[in-house]
Write a structure and sequence with these properties.
The chain is an alpha/beta fold. It folds into 3 domains: 4-12 and 206-293, 4-hydroxy-3-methylbut-2-enyl diphosphate reductase, catalytic domain (Cobalt-precorrin-4 Transmethylase, domain 1, 3-Layer(aba) Sandwich); 15-97, Rossmann fold (3-Layer(aba) Sandwich); 100-200, Cobalt-precorrin-4 Transmethylase, domain 1 (3-Layer(aba) Sandwich), CATH 3.40.1010.20. It has 10 helices and 12 strands. It has helices at residues 15-30, 46-55, 80-88, 99-115, 131-138, 150-158, 178-191, 206-220, 234-246, 280-293; strands at residues 4-7, 36-39, 57-60, 70-73, 92-95, 121-125, 145-147, 168-172, 198-200, 224-228, 250-253, 269-274. It has a 4-stranded parallel beta sheet, with helices on both faces. Strands 3-2-4-5 form a 4-stranded parallel beta sheet, with helices on both faces. Strand 4 (70-73), helix 3 (80-88) and strand 5 form a beta-alpha-beta unit. The longest helix is centred in the middle third of the chain and has 17 residues, at 99-115. The chain is flat and about 65 Å long.
Length: 294
């Protein structure tokens, strides 16, 4: 009996990534032969990066930004220091920071101005070293505590890095797990000398947050789940863990070549899904490869 393959209709690029890639393609088409330099990977997906590199997009680090060239700020955003350096180098900047991230950066600056005079602090639930988190921390010159999980929060508490007698404002990286964020906030609330001094900001992207329950249902509704994402995708790790929790026959791949015949049984209903950094064309390629192999 043949396999049945369905692509999750809500998988694929989020709005911020679509906007950044569209801006990059528009520039490259309007300026043939002229390179466009992305400060960091425009998207955490190796296959899509290769496609865009073929069109002329070049990836550079903040330390190697070329003078006098056109720079693209990706959806993840950047700290103020990156913009200052670009001005020093005489670069033209195409700012593609996701509007959700841009708003969060502003909220963090406002919160810092509010709590700093009171001896309070900011806590960010996010992946240390992630591009978005670096941009967020950069809004307050690094004066924020970043925790990736409950264990890291407990370590910070044990080390005395949080003063629970002073105001605390907490934020989440926009692509983190809602349940993980809720657990962090609950622990902080229980520790506060005055619970009213804890201010929790709802900063997870609505598009990302709403996908969690939907994706879990999608995973449970299929015999096998093939989750497609780049290895560096933070959102991909969160969503794949969600799929694996809902369906133990879930497998993560980066390209169709990584598919394995032994993952499938005759008559399986196969669900293909991915991260917010996974292009639709790659999901379609994976689905087609599954159908060809069985």
């Amino acid at each position: 009996m043949a396999l049945q393959v369905e692509i999750d209709p809500r998988s694929g690029f989020c709005g911020g990534v679509i906007r950044a890639i569209s801006k990059a393609e528009e520039f490259l088409e309007a300026h043939p032969g002229e390179p466009l330099y992305s400060v960091g990977d425009i998207v955490h997906n190796e296959a899509e990066l290769e496609r865009l590199e073929g069109k002329g997009l070049r990836t550079v680090s903040k330390e190697s930004m070329p003078a006098g060239q056109t720079l693209l700020i990706r959806a993840h955003g950047e700290p103020p220091a990156t913009y200052a350096r670009a001005r020093e180098l005489g670069c033209r900047v195409i700012d593609c920071t996701c509007p959700v991230v841009l708003q969060l950066q502003g909220i963090i600056r406002e919160a810092y101005a509010r709590v700093k005079p009171l001896g309070g602090q900011l806590i960010i639930f996010g992946k240390i070293g992630h591009a978005e988190v670096l941009g967020l921390v950069g809004q307050v010159d690094g004066d924020a505590l970043v925790v990736e999980n409950e264990a890291m929060l407990d370590e910070a508490i044990a080390a005395g890095r949080i003063d629970f007698s002073k105001p605390v404002e907490v934020f989440s990286q926009t692509t983190k797990s809602p349940s993980g964020y809720a657990a962090i906030c609950s622990r902080l609330h229980d520790r506060m000398a005055r619970p009213e001094d804890l201010r929790v900001h709802d900063t997870i992207c609505r598009q990302v947050a709403s996908r969690h329950a939907q994706l879990a249902d999608f995973a449970r509704g299929h015999d096998v789940i093939i989750f497609v994402s780049g290895r560096q995708s933070s959102n991909g790790k969160v969503l794949f863990d969600l799929c694996r929790g809902a369906n133990e026959r879930s497998w993560q791949i980066g390209s169709p070549d990584e598919l394995r015949p032994e993952w499938f049984r005759d008559g399986d209903r196969v669900g293909v899904c991915g991260a917010t950094s996974t292009p639709k064309w790659l999901l379609e390629d994976v689905a087609q490869k599954i159908l060809q192999e069985k």
